[in-house]
Amino acid sequence: MTDEVIVDIDDYAANETTFNQYDISDDMREEMDAVITAQKTLGNDDLEIVVYAPSNVSSGIQPRGNAPIGTTYYEHYANGITYKMKNYTVAYRNLSTGMIEKKGTGTLSQAKAWTNFVVSAVGAVSKTVGAFGIFSSAYEAYKASKGAVVTGSSSDHMYTNLVYDRLMKETYAADIYGDYILGCVSYKVWLNRHDNYQYYGSTGRAYYGSDTLNTEHYSENFNYPSPTAIQNAGGGYYIDGFQYTKVFGKTVRLMGT
After folding, report:
1. pLDDT reported for residue 71
2. How many Cα atoms occupy the beta-carbon half-sphere of 121 within 13 Å?
3. Buried-most residue among 27, 31, 80, 113 (CB within 10 A)?
């Protein structure tokens, strides 16, 4: 059984009573606070945050997994032992990277070379995402709309903004006393879209495009965190590597901060 806890972004302190009621961890609270601050600094007014926490109200609804009716845990069986597990998940929606810029005479060559995003994370398989739909590069998208650019100039300017959702999941395993101990932190990212702007001084024309990406990317333990959580609970929890990509040679962490 899981409850949906909607986070008040505009008055973060107002969440404290609810966070205490659901026993939201200090690490999760601190990360949410940091993300809110960073996204407000970027001028992102579309951010939404929801926490999915084990319910503290019993009912006759059968939860997922093998747990008895009315419980808030699930069970994982390994090495002849049945472990009780819990997940807390915070969902960040409509995160923004903010403007990532390229200026000057090298902008044109960068636009011709820019074809995709490669999303990577330590311990996970990198995934390549085509960035411009039917067009093979940023420049080809510009050319189809505004015409060819013969030569670059110092006034050329290009920027992009990635919009994405992200899950941060804490997985807990119960010890012999019945206390739930954090054992694994894992992540999932959806790349939703990116907004691309290009201007070239030789043509005096600007282009703006918004391309849907709609791809999912997982950290190493997100889909199956229980074994790692059991192994590390009580001995210092394991944190998966965060997802990142590169834009104009700059590493961009898909964390919201």
Report:
1. 60
2. 22
3. 31
